[in-house]
């Protein structure tokens, strides 16, 4: 499905944008003064999100040309191709249908992919997950010694970890009392050791979450945890008269597209939840990969979460381009990256519960759009995926905001906040959430409008340090607000960034849904393993740097 791919640099809109950028004198102060309605005109609603784009370095002409660009690269056709299940992941010859994971039951028209009714499949698996979740939550499902499950440990990495962790952290207030989730991802043995430390094996359920069920880290950690479970149960005498297999069946379930490999691992296929190759790992938190969430947060919360995704999908699918928030934000990122020269993009949630959101977005955006060739295999001649990063406010304010305010680089930033806190707290008369929000509002104001030398002088500042205290302003930000961080709003936020990522990929003409760039490191790690274990022949075949580093390890190990 590459016939619609257009080199963006050959479009008229690209030429217009180049021209507009050459003539641009950013002046947010002036633009706001000249147009009282700027914020109103550049604020949009997408489902429950209020999105203000007005503090970006855009004029009406820039916005018009960005919309022309979308038309010239046939964004609407590409969007239709994705939603209808065409194989837009060309290098893997796959449909890209994470949007089908959140279509409500009975949604019309029906969707068939490769001859199979997708909605039936999705809802069948969901029903199975919810049934299992209810059994764990009620205590009907127990560990091998008959005790109720209190901790669910998700073993997975990348998309099989980052989504579940982020959502669990974000929606912790919705977790059932007496039930917690933990996560193991890294093959560093410290991760598993610290995670199972102090856990009671009799009340612990492990979920081995792996789309391929072939990922080294996940399968290694799964075996390590299986050994820990069996050793601990045996040590306590809890397994007397019972087979290992019985314990594994009670304490291990799996989530995968490769159910045959699950069985080979020793997990009963009855206790495995499937999904499909048209769900990319980084787009899978709303698939069976979210089983840990359905258990700990509950099926109702998970349903609300899926409903949020769907609301944003509908917005993206149907809203006209002029009001289509994911499309506008994606196009704005193109403006920032390809014309204004931004290399990174900060995401700054003013909500502690979203503290893993930037990390989640790193995989979503960077694994998707970190590509150097087009979907047709030609080298791109423009920059693609920017580096996404961030931390929650206000912590970031006391760490890296200095560079965003006064550094030499342009760093577009998304600020995210909610009108209502989960914890209403007073410090004397002061509402602490209001103080928190005052920081959120202050930051984007400072970044946009800065502080002139005259304003600094007017504060009586010594002339010698006036330059250091000047804020140039014109630092682009987007503000995203919602009433409250609910499961539905979180689903909307994730889907918003999924679609932004898609829009950028369409403009760049790349395949946003493969991830070949992770393969070489995996292959080399396996090839180097014998050298690390001391095989001198394999060591001798390495380049001098790698040989030297492994030599250092071999000389210093066991010390
Ligand atoms: O190595 C990258 C990757 O394939 C990601 O895209 C994926 O989310 C992660 O590994 C985990 O893969 P799996 O779910 O198959 O274990």
Automatic annotation (TrEMBL):
Against CDD domains, the record matches this protein to: SIS_PGI_1 (cd05015), SIS_PGI_2 (cd05016)
The Swiss-Prot or TrEMBL record annotates one GO molecular function as:
monosaccharide binding
Q: Indicate yes or no for the key word Metal-binding.
A: no
| EC code(s) of this entry | 5.3.1.9
Q: Name one GO cellular component term.
A: cytosol
Coiled-coil parts of chain? none
Describe which pathway this protein belongs to, using the record's wording: Carbohydrate degradation; glycolysis; D-glyceraldehyde 3-phosphate and glycerone phosphate from D-glucose: step 2/4; Carbohydrate biosynthesis; gluconeogenesis
**UniProt-listed InterPro entries:** G6P_Isomerase (IPR001672), G6P_Isomerase_C (IPR023096), Phosphoglucose_isomerase_CS (IPR018189), SIS_dom_sf (IPR046348), SIS_PGI_1 (IPR035476), SIS_PGI_2 (IPR035482)
Q: Belongs to which family?
A: Belongs to the GPI family.
This protein is called what? Glucose-6-phosphate isomerase
Q: Give the organism, scientific name.
A: Rothia aerolata
**Which gene does this sequence derive from?**
pgi
């Amino acid at each position: 499905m590459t016939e619609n791919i257009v080199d963006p640099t050959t479009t008229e809109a690209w030429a217009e944008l180049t021209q507009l950028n050459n003539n641009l004198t950013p002046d947010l102060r002036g633009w706001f003064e000249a147009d009282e309605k700027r914020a109103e005109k550049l604020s949009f609603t997408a489902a429950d999100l209020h999105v203000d784009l007005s503090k970006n370095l855009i004029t009406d002409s820039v916005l018009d040309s960005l919309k022309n660009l979308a038309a010239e690269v046939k964004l609407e056709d590409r969007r239709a191709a994705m939603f209808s299940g065409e194989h837009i992941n060309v290098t893997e010859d796959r449909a890209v249908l994470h949007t089908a994971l959140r279509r409500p039951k009975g949604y019309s028209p029906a969707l068939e992919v490769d001859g199979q009714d997708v909605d039936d499949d999705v809802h069948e698996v969901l029903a199975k997950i919810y049934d299992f979740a209810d059994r764990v939550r009620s205590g009907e499902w127990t560990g091998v010694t008959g005790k109720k499950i209190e901790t669910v440990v998700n073993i997975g990495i990348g998309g099989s970890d980052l989504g579940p962790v982020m959502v669990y952290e974000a929606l912790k207030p919705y977790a059932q009392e007496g039930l917690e989730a933990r996560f193991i991802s890294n093959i560093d043995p410290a991760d598993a050791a610290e995670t199972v430390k102090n856990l009671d094996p009799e009340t612990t359920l492990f979920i081995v979450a792996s789309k391929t069920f072939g990922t080294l880290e996940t399968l290694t950690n799964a075996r390590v945890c299986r050994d820990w479970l069996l050793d601990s149960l045996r040590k306590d005498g809890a397994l007397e008269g019972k087979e290992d297999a019985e314990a594994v069946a009670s304490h291990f379930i799996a989530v995968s597209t490769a159910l045959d490999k699950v069985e080979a691992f020793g997990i009963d296929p009855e206790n495995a939840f499937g999904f499909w190759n048209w769900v990319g790992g980084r787009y899978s938190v709303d698939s069976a990969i979210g089983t840990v969430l359905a258990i700990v947060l509950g099926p109702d919360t998970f349903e609300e979460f899926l409903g949020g995704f769907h609301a944003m999908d509908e917005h993206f699918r149907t809203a006209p381009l002029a009001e289509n928030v994911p499309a506008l934000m994606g196009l704005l990122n193109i403006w920032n990256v390809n014309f204004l020269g931004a290399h990174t993009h900060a995401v700054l949630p003013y909500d502690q519960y979203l503290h893993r959101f930037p990390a989640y977005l790193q995989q979503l955006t960077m694994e998707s759009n970190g590509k150097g060739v087009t979907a047709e295999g030609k080298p791109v001649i423009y920059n693609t995926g920017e580096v996404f990063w961030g931390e929650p406010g206000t912590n970031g304010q006391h760490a890296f905001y200095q560079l965003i305010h006064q550094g030499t680089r342009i760093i577009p930033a998304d600020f995210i906040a909610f009108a209502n806190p989960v914890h209403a707290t007073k410090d004397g008369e002061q509402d602490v959430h209001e103080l928190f929000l005052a920081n959120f509002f202050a930051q984007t104001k400072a970044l946009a409008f800065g502080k002139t030398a005259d304003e600094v002088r007017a504060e009586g500042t010594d002339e010698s340090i006036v330059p250091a205290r000047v804020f140039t302003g014109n630092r682009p930000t987007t503000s995203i607000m919602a009433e409250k961080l609910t499961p539905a709003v979180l689903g909307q936020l994730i889907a918003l960034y999924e679609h932004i990522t898609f829009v950028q990929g369409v403009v760049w003409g790349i395949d946003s849904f493969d991830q070949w760039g992770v393969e070489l490191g995996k292959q080399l790690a396996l090839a180097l393993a014998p050298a690390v274990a001391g095989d001198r022949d394999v060591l001798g075949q390495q380049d001098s740097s790698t040989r030297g580093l492994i030599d250092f390890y071999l000389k210093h190990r066991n010390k």
